[in-house]
Amino acid sequence: MTNTSATTTNVRVIDLSECLADITANTIYNSEHNLLPSDIFEDVILQAINDLIDDFALDPHNYLKTHHQEQIDTIAHDYLDRDLDKSELNFYFGEHI
Fold this sequence. Notes:
With 97 residues, the chain is mainly α. It is built from 4 helices and no strands. The chain has helices spanning 20-29, 42-58, 66-81, 86-93.
């Protein structure tokens, strides 16, 4: 069975290779482990970041800063203000518009 309504999306990648060492160093800076080389903790910090991404995916509103939510609201408002066919709005929002 073929899904003819499939859409293509751009693959977006978060590359932590440039900042993982800094994040790890900052994480252990004020800890009892600050005299140890920070790179030995990079794997666990990467796991922690992955867990944060998972937590964000499950409850984004708990992690969004106010200005991010405002940007989302502005984008949604601007999108709805474009010249959309009334039937398209009904498809997304039903008869409540």
